[in-house]
């Protein structure tokens, strides 16, 4: 059975893995995200130390990414607030080192595809995956196909209405200020309340405010896509009780208009700690057809 090199490329760490097409992960390793040269070089070296002769390499990466195959900068990060990484080429170091195909997409698209195939989306026609953590991103799968346009979706940058009790915070997005990401991502929560949401008391108003925003965004995506499943992942969603508050908020925002039971539609990820690497595997298997 062929082996695949898998990379979950995050802003703080890279998770590396080797797996076969049956989703057996044979090896796993984590390295810090420093500079592109150091991080990518260390990743290549680890795969070589494992004796990997890959059928292909799959990369599920933080974005934004240039995903236009006709572009001379396909597989590059065109712009990012992450120091040193604007313009970084994620594909070439692995293609050259292993002389094999490389599949790449965003980490959230990978997670969406893996949850659709093997997790919360099994038995459903469509799935939206939202990750709410250091940043916010979204991936949508319908009939087994990921949504792309000129590039990948940037669902964290939609505009949302301000909560009545949250009018003064300007937002932390360097591009849009108080967009969805700028109000709800981990740094935005810490910027207002000097703590992560899970560290704040249960009766702190931040819980209701953040759930209000997420429920509003969920209804926006329901109006555009009507996904059969909405999977909410990321560090912010680890806050106890938050998903129940989001379901209540989404119910209020929907006002009876959308189909389905929010408790059945809005769910947690199933794949857990393997979601990132299995996302990279889903991307590479999708590329092979």
Summarize the topology:
Layout: E1 3-9, E2 13-20, E3 25-32, H1 36-49, E4 56-61, H2 92-98, E5 102-106, H3 107-118, E6 126-132, E7 136-142, E8 145-146, H4 180-184, H5 186-193, H6 205-225, E9 229-233, H7 242-254, H8 262-265, E10 266-267, H9 275-288
Helix pairs in contact: 3-9, 6-7
| CATH-defined fold name of the largest domain | Nucleotidyltransferase, domain 5
Number of helices: 9
Reported for the largest beta sheet, the result is: 5 strands, mixed
CATH architecture of the largest domain: 2-Layer Sandwich
Strand-pairing-aware structural class: alpha/beta
Q: First CA to last CA: what distance?
A: 17 Å
Beta percentage is 15-25%
**Kindly state the mean pLDDT as a whole number?**
95
Number of strands: 10
Radius of gyration: 19 Å
**How would you name the CATH homologous superfamily of the largest domain?**
ATPase, nucleotide binding domain
- As a percent range, the share of helical residues equals 25-40%
Order of helices and strands: EEEHEHEHEEEHHHEHHEH
CATH class bucket of the largest domain = Alpha Beta
Question: In terms of per-residue confidence, which ranges show pLDDT below 50 for 5 or more consecutive residues?
Answer: none
Number of domains: 2
Characterize the quaternary organization of these chains.
single chain
């Amino acid at each position: 059975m062929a082996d695949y090199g898998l990379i979950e490329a995050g802003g703080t760490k890279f998770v590396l893995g080797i797996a076969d097409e049956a989703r057996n992960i044979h090896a796993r390793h984590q390295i810090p995200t420093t500079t592109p040269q150091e991080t990518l070089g260390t990743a290549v070296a680890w795969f070589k130390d494992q004796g990997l002769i890959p059928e292909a390499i799959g990369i599920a990466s933080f974005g934004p990414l240039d995903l236009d195959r006709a572009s001379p900068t396909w597989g590059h990060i065109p712009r990012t607030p992450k120091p040193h990484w604007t313009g970084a080429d994620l594909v070439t170091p692995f293609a050259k080192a292993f002389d094999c195909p490389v599949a790449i997409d965003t980490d959230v698209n990978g997670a969406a595809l893996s949850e659709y195939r093997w997790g919360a989306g099994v038995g459903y026609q469509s799935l939206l995956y939202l990750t709410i953590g250091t940043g916010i991103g979204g991936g949508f799968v319908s009939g087994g196909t990921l949504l792309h346009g000129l590039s990948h979706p940037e669902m964290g940058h939609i505009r949302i209405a301000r909560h009545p009790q949250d009018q003064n915070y300007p937002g932390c997005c360097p591009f849009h200020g108080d967009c969805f990401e700028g109000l709800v991502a981990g740094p935005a929560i810490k910027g207002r309340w000097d703590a992560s949401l899970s560290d704040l008391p249960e009766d702190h108003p931040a819980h209701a405010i953040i759930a209000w925003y997420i429920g509003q965004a969920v209804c926006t995506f329901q109006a555009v896509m009507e996904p059969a499943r909405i999977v909410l992942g990321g560090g912010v969603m680890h806050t106890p009780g938050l998903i129940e508050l989001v379901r209540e908020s989404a119910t209020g925002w929907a006002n009876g208009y959308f189909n389905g039971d929010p408790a059945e539609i809005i769910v947690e990820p199933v794949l857990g700690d393997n979601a990132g690497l299995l996302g990279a595997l889903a991307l590479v298997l999708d590329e092979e057809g």
